[in-house]
Amino acid sequence: MAWEIIIGSLIKGMLLFALAWALDIVIPVVVALLVGSGFRSLAGGAHSTAYVRCLVLSLAIYLLTGWTATTYAFLISPDQLVNLLFIGFLFCFLTVWWWAPGPVPGKELTSSKHKLFKVLSLLYLFPWLGAMIYLAGQGHSSLALAGLLALLAQGFGLTPMGYRLIKRYDLLLMGNYPENKYFHHSAGAASAAWRSIQK
Known about the structure:
Helix content: over 70%
Radius of gyration: 17 Å
Distance between the termini: 42 Å
Number of helices: 8
Strand content: under 5%
Number of strands: 0
Largest sheet: none
Order of helices and strands: HHHHHHHH
Structural class: mainly alpha
């Protein structure tokens, strides 16, 4: 099992960097990958249920993030970007506080580990914010924007809506087969957490 994960990760990495090189967005994609994978490893979140579907979704997210940041960063002033970084920080802080660590297939967490990963996910956001503000201050707006978009994508993946969206994507590529138990459980758990917050 471990070697399958390693080989799958290598294939994903090679494809991602090859496509990023072809699109001339390697550095923003690297920033997005570091931010997104780092946060996801701690906070968890919605996953596709098959390697190929996960591969396609991951490539699409990171390439779109890198391309968007490279293409549109010039439209945002440094001050506006810093404000957006604080908004993104707040959004992800709240999603972590309410829902992290998100359910992940094949990985059950004890109560103590659940609390540990929640705390680590919250702590992760502080150096992220400092690094992104530094990049923005050094004139690397596209890199800071890439880091912001990657974090927002992973934060959204913790929400009930994020789980439902990934479930729809998964079912669409599976040919509308019956719902996967993992998604039913994960989206239900996230929704239950949301209902408890509203009370």
